[in-house]
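Appendix B. Chain record.
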Amino acid sequence: MLAQTKLLLDAFSKTNDSQLTEPDQIVPGSKFLGRLSGDHFAVALPFETSDEAIKNQADKNHFPRSALLEAIVRFVTQDLP
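Structure tokens predicted for this chain:
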């Protein structure tokens, strides 16, 4: 679905998510947690358990969101003073 915008952004930066280039994705003053290898909709939404109409077009991208949440919580708790 985002192939055209990916190609357009590749002209500016090869590291993009088809919506923003990598430098534009990082909030100034924040800590970089890492880069996910998966479709950004699959990371955010549980398509494999959804009854939504888009499921027919975006049901091939399972992503372990619970493992991601655990990793984020571990990172944040270790970073606390």
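Further analysis of this model is presented in Appendix C.
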